[in-house]
Amino acid sequence: DAKTTQPPSMDCAEGRAANLPCNHSTISGNEYVYWYRQIHSQGPQYIIHGLKNNETNEMASLIITEDRKSSTLILPHATLRDTAVYYCIVRVAYNTDKLIFGTGTRLQVFP
Amino acid sequence: GAVVSQHPSWVICKSGTSVKIECRSLDFQATTMFWYRQFPKQSLMLMATSNEGSKATYEQGVEKDKFLINHASLTLSTLTVTSAHPEDSSFYICSAQDRADYEQYFGPGTRLTVT
Q1: Is B95 on the interface with A (CB under 8 A)?
Q2: Facing B43 at nearest CB: one of A41, A46, A103
C-alpha cells in the first residue's frame, strides 16, 4: 500500500502558484519524498525529491515540514501544460526500492 | 539523458494470441527494471520487478505464467502477455533504474487492446 495520502483533485488558475499537499506521517528516517507527474496517456515524469531540506529545481519547489510528516510541491507559475496527475511517493533512495503509487492528485490548470 | 523507450507504443491483438512489449534504457545501464499496469482513471499498479540475469519477482496476484518477463541485458527487458484476453487490455509502463544513481526513469507506455 502507498504510504502517502493526497487530495484527489485540485484546480489552479494559469499563472498562479499551484500548491499540492502530501501527507506521509509514517515516513522512515531513511526515506525520501519523491514527486512524479503523469500527463494523460504518458509515462510518469520525475519532478523533484528531498529528504528533509527544502529543494528547488527548474520545475518546482519541494517544502518538507520539520517533522517530515508532510510536504508540499509548489509549481510557481502553473501553465496549461502542467495539467496532470501528481504523485507523491516515499522511498529509500540509492537502492532498488520499488515505487508504490497512490491515487495522486489530479491538477487541472484553467485559463 | 536518462531516456527509456517502449515498443510498440500501441498494439491491438486478438484474444488468445501473445504480445511482447520491449523496454529499453537508451543512455544508461539498468540492473533493475519495473513493469506497471494502469487501467483507465486508476493509478499505476506494480506488476513485477525485473533484475538483469535473474528471474523476475512478481507482485501478489500477478500471474507469472501469463506475464513473462525477460531481462537479458542491462538495457533491455521484455514483457510478454501470453494468451491475451480482453481483460488484459491496459496501459503497460516500464521503468528502468539507473545503476549509477538508483534513480528510476519511466518509459512512455504501451497501450494494449485485446479484441
Answers
A1: yes
A2: A103
Nearest to A27 by CA among A49, A60, A56, A55: A49
How far away is chain B from the Cα of A11, in angstroms, using its nearest Cα? 18
HSE toward the beta carbon, residue B96, CA cutoff 13 A? 30
Tell me how many residue pairs between chain A and chain B have CB atoms under 8 A apart.
Answer: 50
Strand partners, B46: B36
DSSP code, position A5: B
A50-99 tens-digit pLDDT? 999 899 999 999 999 999 999 999 999 999 999 999 999 998 877 767 88
Contact B11, B113 (CB under 8 A): yes
Tell whether A87 is within 8 A of chain B (Cβ). Answer: yes
How wide is the angle at C-alpha B46 spanned by C-alphas B19 and B1, nearest 5°? 80
Instruction: Quote the CA–CA distance of B46 and B110 in Å, as a whole number.
Output: 15
Q: What is the grid cell recorded at A23?
A: 501527507
How do residues B15-59 score in pLDDT, each as one tens digit? Answer: 999 999 999 999 999 989 999 999 998 999 999 999 888 889 999
Residue B8 three-state SS: coil
Nearest to A88 by CA among A109, A103, A78: A103
Provide the β-strand partners of residue A103.
Answer: none
